[in-house]
Amino acid sequence: MLRSLWTAATGMIAQQYQMDTIANNLSNVNTTGFKKNRVDFEDLIYQQQILAGTPATPVSEIPTGVYVGSGTKVAATQKLFEMGSLQNTGNKFDLAITSEVGFFKILLPDGTFAYTRDGSFKIDSNRQIVTSNGYLLEPPIVLPEGAINNTLQVNEDGEVYVKIKDDIRPVKIGQILLYRFVNPAGLQAIGNNLFKETVASGPEIEGIPGREGFGSILQGFLEMSNVKIVEEMVNMIVAQRAYESNSKAIITSDNMLGTAISMKR
Question: Within this chain, do residues 13 and 65 fall inside the same structural domain, yes or no?
């Protein structure tokens, strides 16, 4: 059987995976805080037919050798955490981080923690600040009894203030902290705009917004997806042409095999 049939097939499989990734990026172009994925490929094992350095004569050796590759495979998919554009919403509970460094920490129902760049927070019936899915912000921020919601203020350092009833001065009710990782690309995406810590990401590093390299908090703004539609469309065209080229290689190999089978003496 011709080796090129299987080699080209690996190329088609790889490009299909690329298309799946591009489709996911494009489908999340308007998802708050979404970070696009990139596919990394690597070549497969090579079959050595003639080993480089093999002695050719008593005084010389073969300089390059003969190697035949067996195709390609997906080596990794990586989240690119470059910052998306900021959109002004005017909503008191919308928060954005002004640099790439920093995640909000979220308490999940099972007691574990997740991390997000999606700052579209809301307030529930218990006056707690929560995500769109009702998950608590960590450390928790709870508006006291009698607090006037539309007076909520969050400064660049993450300090949260609100006016209570007829008080003239706002009262500090909490502190929003940010978290970063040595290798954010190693975080596990679990959906709902959330990531979980892994061994590859390293442990969380806690900090105050605007200090120690962390981004500041910007109230009334949201960070949009960092997907660039034009870039994804170009990648789609490249993936499509590569897929077509590999399919043509299979067709050509099949024709060659058919010719060899139909030969007569």
Answer: yes
Split into its structural domains, the chain has a count of: 2
Q: For 167-223, how does the pLDDT look when each residue is reduced to its tens digit (9 = 90+)?
A: 788 999 999 999 999 999 999 999 999 999 999 999 999 999 999 899 999 999 999
Residues 209 and 99 in one domain: yes
Integer CA distances (angstroms), 19 to 28, 52, 157, 191, in order:
14, 38, 41, 20
Burial bucket for residue 189 (CB in 10 Å: 0-12, 13-18, 19+): middle
